Amino acid sequence: MDFQLTEEQLAVQAAARDFAQNELLPGVIDRDTHEKFPAEQIKKMGELGFMGMMVDPKYNGGGMDTISYVLAMEEISKIDSSASVSMSVNNSLVCWGIEKYGTEEQKEKYLKRLATGEIIGAFCLSEPEAGSDATSQRTTAEDKGDYYLLNGTKNWITNGNSASVYLVIAQTDKEKGHKGINALIVEKDMEGFQVGKKEEKMGIRGSDTHSLMFTDVKVPKENRIGEDGFGFNFAMATLNGGRIGIAAQALGIASGAYELALKYSKERKAFGKEINQHQAIAFKLADMATNIETARLLCLKAAWLKDQKKDFSQASAMAKLFASQVAMDTTVEAVQVHGGYGYVKEYHVERLMRDAKITQIYEGTSEIQKIVISRNILK
Ligand code: CAA
Ligand code: FAD
């Protein structure tokens, strides 16, 4: 077992940290307050190689390992989770899904531009009536010979308005249950595709979350990913990797809040001493540091298993389940360490606390992660 990061991994971590400090931090409060999508910043992230980190260089990707991806996600998420959720969806759902299961033509046409951040992608599984219970979706992709006729509504789609390419999971043959579902690549300008309302959210307020409507959208057969009926298995396999990204996002939110709390505890004095000299505050910091270290180990273990091409579905579910709880606990306590100042925007921890909550909900709620873990343990 080797806990030492490589030179390359350390360089990626440092580059992500610099980018987050210099390019994301300055406008983050304004983007959060006014719900502004970080379009410019994401473009730069693409130029720096953060939008297609693990993609093979022959498709314009960074050819990096999943450990580097976790390190970069943590650093970006310390500052701006609206930017990091776009990064996560693009890297681990859209790019990975197309690279792993797409045809050579799909990789040429879509992956090469997605990997550089020239365009970004969205992953469309959830619907108004089907979130956790993902097989009960109602969107249909009727087989019409050389194309699918797509009808229905998707909900809560990250990058909903900013994406150019959408991976849409839809039912072709209801009788076949989850084996009758397909995954289709839909382009934004296809006729009959419409971006619906933008959600007003508690956290990740810069992220553009939209409903999407499909009315008789003709999607060519060559845009199907994998064999007929592979769509649900495609979604599940892709989400295993996505959950590593969101676990790393939760880790970043927690470590960002901890770093702020630690710094503040050295600056603020009460009753004649730094507040960290009161054991109640020192113990909070000790708990935060221990939980964060544990979450980090779980994230890195899941990433390592993925890089070793071993089964990582249980490990990614454990990492997301644990890191998202640590993000909640740490951010709540970081606000407490800041006292009244923690409750105002200027000190950042209140935003991190609002951002933390979503990590327990998307890419499978914490209850769903427990289903994944327990089914693995019990099988
Ligand atoms: N990895 C690989 N395959 C999996 C899997 C996993 N983690 N979980 C299920 N599967 C496969 C099963 O093996 C089975 O396939 P086979 O029949 O070929 O063996 C198939 O999926 C159906 O499995 P189940 O019978 O277990 O299905 P189920 O209806 O009981 O549901 C579930 C299983 C785990 C609850 C699943 O529905 C689920 O993960 N729900 C959560 C959905 C989710 O995570 N949505 C996220 C949307 S994207 C998003 O949120 C992005 C964002 O915010 C940024
Ligand atoms: P429900 O499934 O209705 O769950 C409600 C509650 O019941 C939860 O607590 C849940 O854990 C619990 N529950 C449900 N079933 C069980 C069970 N079997 N056992 C125990 N408890 C259970 N989706 C996408 O496809 N793409 C995206 O890009 C995307 N981005 C998102 C961005 C945001 C900001 C948000 C809020 C959501 C996003 N989602 C996206 C959707 C997200 O994945 C779903 O919200 C999530 O999977 C939960 O589904 P739901 O909201 O329908 O809740």
UniProtKB/TrEMBL annotation:
GO terms for molecular function: acyl-CoA dehydrogenase activity; flavin adenine dinucleotide binding. InterPro entries: Acyl-CoA_DH_CS (IPR006089), Acyl-CoA_Oxase/DH_mid-dom (IPR006091), Acyl-CoA_Oxase/DH_mid-dom_sf (IPR046373), AcylCo_DH-like_C (IPR036250), AcylCo_DH/oxidase_C (IPR009075), AcylCoA_DH/ox_N (IPR013786), AcylCoA_DH/ox_N_sf (IPR037069), AcylCoA_DH/oxidase_NM_dom_sf (IPR009100). Residues 231-378 form the Acyl-CoA dehydrogenase/oxidase C-terminal domain. Residues 6-118 form the Acyl-CoA dehydrogenase/oxidase N-terminal domain. It comes from the Bacteria. Keywords: FAD, Flavoprotein, Oxidoreductase. SUPFAM superfamilies: Acyl-CoA dehydrogenase C-terminal domain-like, Acyl-CoA dehydrogenase NM domain-like. Belongs to the acyl-CoA dehydrogenase family. This is Cyclohex-1-ene-1-carbonyl-CoA dehydrogenase. It comes from Marivirga arenosa.
